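This follows on from our talk about sequence and fold. Please put the record directly below this note.
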Amino acid sequence: MNKKVLTLSAVMASMLFGAAAHAADTRIGVTIYKYDDNFMSVVRKAIEQDAKAAPDVQLLMNDSQNDQSKQNDQIDVLLAKGVKALAINLVDPAAAGTVIEKARGQNVPVVSSTKNRLVRRWIATTKPTTLALIPKSPALFRAI
C-alpha cells in the first residue's frame, strides 16, 4: 500500500507540472531516507519505472543514507536546481516542518511518505500558493 501511495504521489506531482513546463524545465526532486532499505529499494525502482512513462520529466533521485542533515542538504540542492515538486521519504519525521518550510519559501509542493505517524502533524497542499503548515491536524493532506 505504501509503495503504491508513494509511487502514485510522485507521478501525480510530475503530472501536476508536466503540461505547463518544457522538458528541460520539469524536474521532480526525490529523496529517500535509505536506498539499501529493502522496501524503499522497491519503491525507488517503481518511481524510476513510472518516470520513464513521462519523458518530459527529469527525476532527480537522492539517497539520504539515513542522515537527516544530508537529506536537508539534498533538499536545498534540489530547490536550488529549480525542481517543480518534491517527493520526500523523511529520515526523521520530526523534520517535516523544516522541510516543508524550505519548499514553501519557494512555492514548491511536497509529497511525503514516512513510516512514522509524526508527519501527520503537518499538512501540505498541492497548490504552491496555499502551501501551509498546520500543527496537530488529524489529516496528512488537506485543501486550504
